[in-house]
Amino acid sequence: MISNDSDELLLLAYMDNELQPKQRHAFEKRLSEEPQLRQRLSEFEKTWNALGFLETFETNPEQVYSSLELISLRAKEDAKSLAARQNKFTAVRSFILWTLLFLLAFLGYQTVNRLSPVGEKQKIDDLRLIERLDQYYLLEKTSPEIDEIEFLRQLHESKILD
User: Fold this and answer.
1) How many CB atoms lie within 10 A of CB 136?
2) Which domain, by its residues, includes 13?
3) 58-81 pLDDT tens trace
4) Whether residue 85 is found in the same domain as residue 125
């Protein structure tokens, strides 16, 4: 049974008398032992003989050359077109990537800024001071020896607002 393409290559080489004497002898032995291989050889020979009845045409070298030039020109144009599309795709992809990175960085900053307890603690401390600012001014006016900045420093050190 013909199991691979190497048998077909052997059949073609056998028909074209391209086998070495040892190879030819081994192949002829296989032909005598394998009926399917003989059948395949017969089919190849019939096909080869049928091809002999086909009309052959002369080729014009100028037409072949011009056809190859057209194919080459078309291939160059296709390559340029493909390169342009790839460049455009790369530019769009880069723009989208940088935009996404910027948005992610911005969202990350906003999230950290809103969830950060450090900023909130300072705001709460400032609110306590602002709520009692009138009382501090009254105290300052009643005690002129107290400097405003010194007074606020003493409040901070005493941890009254904590």
Assistant:
1) 15
2) 5-51
3) 777 777 778 788 888 898 999 999
4) no
| Alpha-carbon separation of residue 25 from 30, 32, 38, 92 (angstroms) | 9, 11, 15, 66
Q: Are residues 79 and 99 in the same domain?
A: yes
Q: Which amino acid is at 154?
A: Q
Q: What span, in angstroms and rounded, lies between the C-alpha atoms of 146 and 72?
A: 95
The pTM score is: 0.34
104 in a structural domain: yes
C-alpha pair distances (Å), 130 with each of 120, 134, 135, 141, 162: 15, 8, 10, 17, 14
What's the total number of domains in the chain? 3
Distance CA 139, CA 155 (A): 12
Q: Tens digit of pLDDT for each residue in 82-94? A: 999 999 989 999 9
Looking at the fold, whether 42 and 10 belong to one and the same domain comes out as yes
> CA triplet 131, 137, 138: central angle to 5 degrees?
105
- By the 10 Å C-beta count (0-12 exposed, 13-18 middle, 19+ buried), 40 is classed as middle
Output the CA–CA distances (angstroms, integers) from residue 81 to 20, 74, 77, 96, 153, in the order listed.
51, 10, 6, 23, 73
Q: Could you tell me where the DSSP H helices lie in 55-132?
A: 61-115, 117-131
Residue 56 lies in a domain: no
